[in-house]
Amino acid sequence: MVTLRAASFLDKGGTGKTTSIAHLGVALTELGHDVLLIDLAGKQGDLGKHLGEWEQVKEDIANDEDWPNISTVFDDTWNKIVDTVGEQEAVDKLIIETEEGPDLIPAHPGLDSLDAELGNVDDATERYSRLDAFLSQYIDGRGYDVVLVDLPGLTNNVSYNGLWAVDGVITPVEMGPFESEQADALRDDLETFRDRFDVEVVLAMVLPNKMDTRTKLASEYLEEFEDQYPDAIAPEPIPVSQDIRNAANSGQTAFALEEPSTTAERAREAFLADAEALVDRLGEKA
Ligand SMILES: Nc1ncnc2c1ncn2[C@@H]1O[C@H](COP(=O)(O)OP(=O)(O)OP(=O)(O)O)[C@@H](O)[C@H]1O
Ligand SMILES: [Mg+2]
């Protein structure tokens, strides 16, 4: 079987990358897929927080029970770990199961220095293909249908590893003129990446987020995105929902809410439709 891979990416903070990875991940499990989420977005561990796992991860770190962790897969440390405990256990220890369904490889403070460490690697292929090599050798055989990677909101050696490794990019955008500029910059970024490294990376999904459906302006921006990205636009925009924000703060996605508001309900439906489109699109590319 093929494990599909996608990553959230936009050279900008706060548009909903982590929210989208968490919700698409849960939506995919609701649709019956086995999903692994990987947090490369930084030591603050936002994806783990969103899924209610970060307190435990922090405790493990404090108790020195954080070995191996995501930062160890990027250098020789990983080979030593595999030599010591064996491949099966090494990978098992990296992955945690979350209550809402997806498995998770959480962030780690070691991610902080990773960008600089990768920067010391001379050869570009060597520098940028490490995540890809790790996923191919250690994760692809594990039976996951989809791997989703949350990347930092900037272009660096870590996000380049993400782009190199995946079949497609998910880009959450807010509705506004600045956002469409960002999306154009993204298109250029991906083109540069393709040309420089001859790596096929596709914009799989432009995901309009925090959509206020009551305003005419938002609808106009949405139409603009639809025109600009006819193949990549997500089938359903994600409504702005206070419930999403509140749920995130208590370590849950909108799918875990027992009494979802109308907007949270609509967000769930939208994420389900978008998750389904995502696997279709990635499947065509892979
Ligand atoms: N549809 C939505 N409705 C309401 N709030 C949302 C929605 N999507 C995201 N948010 C909120 O917006 C904020 C930013 O979202 P998120 O953390 O997912 O963005 P990000 O792109 O991962 O940011 P960063 O670049 O800092 O990692 C969070 O407080 C989140 O709860
Ligand atoms: Mg984030």
UniProtKB/TrEMBL annotation:
SUPFAM superfamilies: P-loop containing nucleoside triphosphate hydrolases. Pfam families: AAA_31 (PF13614). Residues 11-197 form the AAA domain. Gene3D superfamilies: P-loop containing nucleotide triphosphate hydrolases (3.40.50.300). InterPro entries: AAA_dom (IPR025669), DNA_Partitioning_ATPase (IPR050678), P-loop_NTPase (IPR027417). It comes from the Archaea. This is ParA family protein. The lineage of its organism: Archaea, Methanobacteriati, Methanobacteriota, Stenosarchaea group, Halobacteria.
